[in-house]
C-alpha cells in the first residue's frame, strides 16, 4: 500500500513556511492504519524491546497499538503538568516552538530496553529529548520508530547512534 499518499499536506500550518504533514487522513483509513502498525511492528520486533514509550500526543496514536501488537507495556511521555505522580522532565526545541516531556518516576526500570515511537521525525528535537529522558530514567534505548521522516530537516543527525526505522521518507 502507498502509505505516503494517505498523508495530507497542509501548507503554512501552524505558521507560514511550514509544510504540515497531516496523519489524520491516514488514521481515518482503517486498513491503512492497521497495515502501518503491523509494518512498524515487523520492523521493531528484532530490537527486542521490553517496553514501548511514546511522546504526547501523536506518538500515543501509534505507540499504543504497536505496544498491543508486540505484547508489551506502554509508557506515556506527556507534556508538562499532565501526569499526576512525581515526574522527570526534559525540554526541547520544535520546528515551530519549544516544549517539554515528562515521564513518571519509576515508569522505566533500570536496564529496560525501551522502543521509542512517534509519528514524525522533523528537526529531531522531540525524539532526542525523549531518548535522553529514557536514559536519565536508567533505561536503554532499544530503537526508535517513526511513521514519517522529513529528511530535509536532518533530524536523524540528532539521534546519534540509535537504531532508527522509518516507514515513509519525504523532503521537508
Ligand atoms: O522532530 P521534531 O521537530 O521535534 O518534530 C516532531 C514532533 O512534532 C509533532 O508533535 P507536536 O509537538 O507538534 O505535538 P502533538 O503530537 O501534540 O501534535 C510530532 O508528533 C512529533 O512529536
Ligand atoms: N512539518 C510537520 N508536519 C507535521 N508534524 C510536524 N511536527 C513537526 N514538524 C511537523
Automatic annotation (TrEMBL):
A GO CC annotation given for this chain: cytoplasm
- Enzyme type, top EC level: transferase
Please give the coiled-coil regions recorded for this protein. Answer: none
Its subcellular locations are: Cytoplasm
**GO MF terms held by the record:** adenine binding; adenine phosphoribosyltransferase activity; AMP binding
> What does the record give as EC number?
2.4.2.7
Q: Do the record's keywords include Glycosyltransferase?
A: yes
Key words, A-Z:
Cytoplasm, Glycosyltransferase, Purine salvage, Transferase
- On whether Cell division is a keyword of this UniProt record, the answer is no
Q: Which reaction does it catalyse?
A: AMP + diphosphate = 5-phospho-alpha-D-ribose 1-diphosphate + adenine
The protein's assembly and partners: Homodimer.
The entry assigns this protein to a family as follows: Belongs to the purine/pyrimidine phosphoribosyltransferase family.
Sum up the protein's function in the record's words. Answer: Catalyzes a salvage reaction resulting in the formation of AMP, that is energically less costly than de novo synthesis.
Identify this protein by name: Adenine phosphoribosyltransferase
Amino acid at each position: 500500500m502507498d502509505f505516503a499518499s494517505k498523508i495530507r499536506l497542509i501548507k503554512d500550518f501552524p505558521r507560514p513556511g511550514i509544510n504540515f504533514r497531516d496523519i489524520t487522513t491516514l488514521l481515518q483509513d482503517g486498513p491503512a492504519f492497521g497495515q502501518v502498525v503491523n509494518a512498524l511492528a515487523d520492523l521493531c520486533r528484532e530490537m527486542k524491546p521490553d517496553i514501548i514509550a511514546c511522546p504526547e500526543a501523536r506518538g500515543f496514536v501509534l505507540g499504543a497499538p504497536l505496544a498491543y501488537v508486540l505484547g508489551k507495556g506502554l509508557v506515556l511521555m506527556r507534556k508538562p503538568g499532565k501526569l499526576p505522580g512525581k515526574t522527570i522532565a526534559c525540554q526541547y526545541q520544535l520546528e515551530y516552538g519549544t516544549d517539554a516531556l515528562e515521564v513518571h518516576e519509576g515508569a522505566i526500570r533500570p536496564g529496560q530496553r525501551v522502543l521509542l515511537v512517534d509519528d514524525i521525525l522533523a528537526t529531531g528535537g522531540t525524539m532526542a529529548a525523549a531518548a535522553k529522558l529514557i536514559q536519565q530514567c536508567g533505561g536503554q534505548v532499544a530503537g526508535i520508530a517513526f511513521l514519517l521522516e522529513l529528511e530535509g530537516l536532518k533530524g536523524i543527525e540528532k539521534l546519534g547512534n540509535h537504531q532508527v526505522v522509518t516507514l515513509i521518507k519525504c523532503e521537508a
